[in-house]
Amino acid sequence: MPPSPPVSLITISQLKRSACLLNLYELIKLQKYKNIIEWIIVEGSPLQEDAHKNKEKVEKLINSQSESMKIIYVEYSGPNKLSDLRNIGNNKCIGDIIVCMDDDDYYPPERVSHAVARLVASSKLIAGCSDIYMYEYLLKKLYKFNKFSENHSTNNSMAFKKEYLKTHSHQAGLSSGEEASFTNGFSEPMVQLSAHKCIILSSHDGNTYNKRELCVSSSAGKNKFLREIVDKSVEDYIPIDIFERMKTLF
């Protein structure tokens, strides 16, 4: 594999996250990696009416953007579950490496370049991050997950070589927890990425999975998987202008 292989980005989005998607676009424009050839946006709105409205918003973004990266919108194909949408998106990607990016999270400028460099230097086919940071927007607190295992990651932190898709897919019909099926129960050898170069997960009212309960239990000392970060602030990781913008989303 060449040192700077072509990369596909993939995001599942929906109408209620349209403002988040625009924010993610701004984060993508800040990426240091220059061989991003496409951004696959898969329509995930549960209702066809919402999907139609969201399509108009995405098409407006496509028509206004001036990046060399191609934005490919995958239209609504029915009320698919999250795992089905991920499979649909993965099958559209043509890059040698596929980098996952959720629409509501913060990604630093090194997100893509770090994942690509680590994968290119390894014989492993998939990368991720288990000990990720998370910011809770209502509680105004920063947290960090303890590493579950060397082969664990949530989808928002994953990147993988296209070759991985020859033998791996998500189990159909899953609304959450689809990562386990994609990694054979988290048994596939995985490159662990550096948390500060990967993601700051967003905890907010619109999450697919309620993360606030985890945060509250952690601050109360009742959650061994998550710890509150008290010696640093979120501004140490997210530039203040971007952080102020993201606060308006949630």
TrEMBL record:
<dbReference type="InterPro" id="IPR029044">
    <property type="entry name" value="Nucleotide-diphossugar_trans"/>
</dbReference>
<dbReference type="Pfam" id="PF00535">
    <property type="entry name" value="Glycos_transf_2"/>
</dbReference>
<dbReference type="InterPro" id="IPR001173">
    <property type="entry name" value="Glyco_trans_2-like"/>
</dbReference>
<protein>
    <recommendedName>
        <fullName>Glycosyltransferase 2-like domain-containing protein</fullName>
    </recommendedName>
</protein>
<feature type="domain" description="Glycosyltransferase 2-like">
    <location>
        <begin position="21"/>
        <end position="158"/>
    </location>
</feature>
